[in-house]
Structures
1.
Amino acid sequence: MANSDRTSDKILQELRRDGRISNLALADRVGLSPSACLRRVQDLENRGVIRGYRARLDPAQTGRAYVVYVAVGLSDHSKAAQEGFEQAMLRAPEVTECHNVAGVFEYILRVEVADLPAYKAFHTETLGTVRHVRSITSYMVMGSPKDERS
């Protein structure tokens, strides 16, 4: 990160752990006065280093506990085919991440649904209907020993 130092790094680490931490508690944890800490956080926000704050949801409570990573290959590698696929994924609420990658497949998706039947419906009714999709390889998550989003 440009213009970073150890104190800013500590602030970011604490905010990643708890985005709702009070400025007073944050200042105490990183060894700054509350006013200096607030200035630093505001500077990080203004420079776009901190792009926002989010709520961490319980996947089981929201009906999205079944996680599948999906590798998608396209039959057409044109810009139009990629844009069409990306637009379809933007419209799919089950897709929480869509990454264009280099390698055997063109895309890796993170799909969150309630259960296997819900994933089958997404696989068949959404992915299976997108033009130029050549291959779909599904990787069901069995456990997550490390997931910094939760």
2.
Amino acid sequence: MKTSYILAAAALSFLAAAGAHAETYQGVQAPVSAVSRADVEAEAARTASAPNQNVVRGSRGAEPFKAVANSEAVYVQAVATANAPDQNVSSGSRVNSRVISTMPNRAGTLQQAQKEVAPVAK
């Protein structure tokens, strides 16, 4: 029975301590805004009537693409890469192996041949 009194007294002392540290109510704070109520209402009306406002970006297909590289330079680089000798051979295909180029660069050979041959007039 003494234990229950001791527990009850401890619980009451904790409640009293918690009540002593309670915050005071300051009332409703005045709103601070740089925009007038009419401007906020007009912006809300514009936003609510905007088309596709709940559509995630990219969900209606790809966005328009604008290239930043020169297409001719990209084409020349692609041709040079496609005609590179031993492009599909890697040194990791066998243990302790080295890649030794055995093929000439076809694009370089074709360009050299075109330079050597004079253009034929039609």
3.
Amino acid sequence: MRMARSWLGGGAALLMGLAAVLTACSSQARSGDAAPAATAGPSVHPFSGLPVIDLVITHEHRRHRFRVEVARSQAEQEKGLMFRTTMAPDEGMIFPMPGGQPASFWMKNTVIPLDIIFIGSDGRISNIAANAVPYDETPLPSKGAVSGVLELNGGRAAQLGIGPGDMVKW
């Protein structure tokens, strides 16, 4: 609140300047000069409401591109892909884990099979729990500390040849 009040106290000139900048930006976007949506930054997933970003897995000099939902908060991570009945082949969900820590996932209330990909602090895949069984509450652990966990459709990693040691960037 303190920042908002001091900003508004700056006067009408500041507000008019901001309006001019916003108008210029919006007219530029309408003119077709804007970058395509896939590179314009995060969008929002229609089902979860979570931000959606680009993620790339590099396997033997091949790049596999995905659009993934970002589950940052504890509540978002606890829900994950529960109750989801479909997911496109190039979609997934990333669970960032700042600071690196061991992780363990399960499939409680998860309807579709998933590949759970554990990403080490070096950005490389440490291990994959492939084709995790829907509704199974057996813990699926990482091999050591991870900086993130990626969930893709079950079998997708094997289909693309993705495995431990491959680089993940998001």
